[in-house]
Amino acid sequence: MPSPTPDRRLDLQRRALASLDALPTAVRELGEAFAGAGHELALVGGPVRDAFLEVVSHDLDFATSARPDETAAVLERWGDTSWDIGKEFGTIGARRSDLIVEVTTYRSEAYEIGSRKPAVEYGDTLEGDLSRRDFTVNAMAVRVPELTFVDPHDGVGALAERVLRTPVSATRSFDDDPLRIMRAARFAAQLGFALDPDVTAAMTDMAQRLNIVSAERVRSELERLLISPQTRRGLEIMVFTGVADVVLPELSRLRETVDEHKRHKDVYEHTLTVLDQAIALETGPDGPVPAPDLVLRLAAVMHDVGKPATRKFEPAGGVSFHHHEIVGAKLTAKRLKALRFDKHTIKDVSRLVELHLRFHGYGEGRWTDSAVRRYVTDAGPLLERLHRLTRADCTTRNRRKAARLSAAYNDLESRIARLREEEELAAIRPDLDGRQIMEILDIPAGPVVGEAYRFLLDLRMDRGPLGEDAAREALLAWWSARE
């Protein structure tokens, strides 16, 4: 890869100087407080990298020669409040007004054999601390309060080239902390940078090392990748290097559905296209699906993961994937649970995968109002995301077919809007509640009340609002027939 031009380096340095000059006064005061206590302090990692990229960092990370107890003592005097929740890793946090800082003792991390948590060893020099960081773009520092720039591994050069390298060999770096394998894919998606060949090779050779990292740490990196500007790029790197085989094997397996006879589309490429299209349909902060939306992006990635298990070559030459949405929803829930996603995210993403094919029945024939009501009710609060996932799932190159599907979905959304105005679709309930059911039928609380409630709900779906009198007559007729 060619070296960056001097002009590119100078431009980056000018940006960084402007950003660093704008650091809050409290940062220099923090440096003075550490110096007064006989310790070194340096702004490190992401905030320094972001200064070169003209990105504002709201939370600032520092490294220090002070040990954790010494750090805590300085921060207690400097800040409005402080906390030691990361003390076992050498990190103490503090807040002063709106400024949040985390200060970590110079250190190195390495995984012990059989351990899922990194062992922390403290160091004595800033340069030694930087040599053990993940990538050279994150191995730059600015000493405070004097604002001296420290870059022993040419992070500026890597920024200028837009490439991710490791300060030491990638194999050694990833062996020290295998999570860096995931970080490589995440930073590629976040920054849009290429990977150095040494990084790519180490990721490929060492992907299985991720098995010793806790699921929570892996999930955190995957989440960051998914909400990055170039999500597709990060996922493609994961699949190419075999990292996805460990972290998200359902995505890797989509490549197994490539059909050499071209009887159906490439499901893997289709999935990445659906992801791109779903991201494009996210909205601004005041819209119904503000970008970046983790649930929508996860659903786009997972929507067809049931296809490898359900693919069937039909006698007539076609290919079917019957019930792949049901199988896919189960696989999605299982994978997200293994990655320790929260229950709400697991439920929402799995539900979107399960519902993503529902619309195709609409395209084949006009739905009744009852079917539209059920579509809205089944989607519940996920309706706006389902709209976007369904539209994104249309990747056909046939313009007529694409136009027909788009028009059909436009029609469905129009009908939903009309029914919503008429019937308050988001809050569909039977015309009678449980208390009224018990009074009318003169029965106590119990399973029969639930049966009656479900009967009235189905009736409400089929016929729309009935009013209490008509619902009462229908309920009594149902009760009579039941007896």
TrEMBL record:
Gene3D superfamilies, A to Z: Beta Polymerase, domain 2, cca-adding enzyme, domain 2
Coiled-coil features, chain-numbered ranges: 402-429
Annotated SUPFAM superfamilies: Nucleotidyltransferase, Poly A polymerase C-terminal region-like
A Pfam family it matches: PolyA_pol_RNAbd
Keyword presence, RNA-binding: yes
Domain (HD/PDEase): residue spans on this chain: 263-424
Keywords recorded for this protein, A-Z: ATP-binding, Coiled coil, Magnesium, Metal-binding, Nucleotide-binding, Nucleotidyltransferase, RNA repair, RNA-binding, Transferase, tRNA processing
Obligatory cofactor(s): Mg(2+)
Protein name: CCA tRNA nucleotidyltransferase
Species: Georgenia halophila
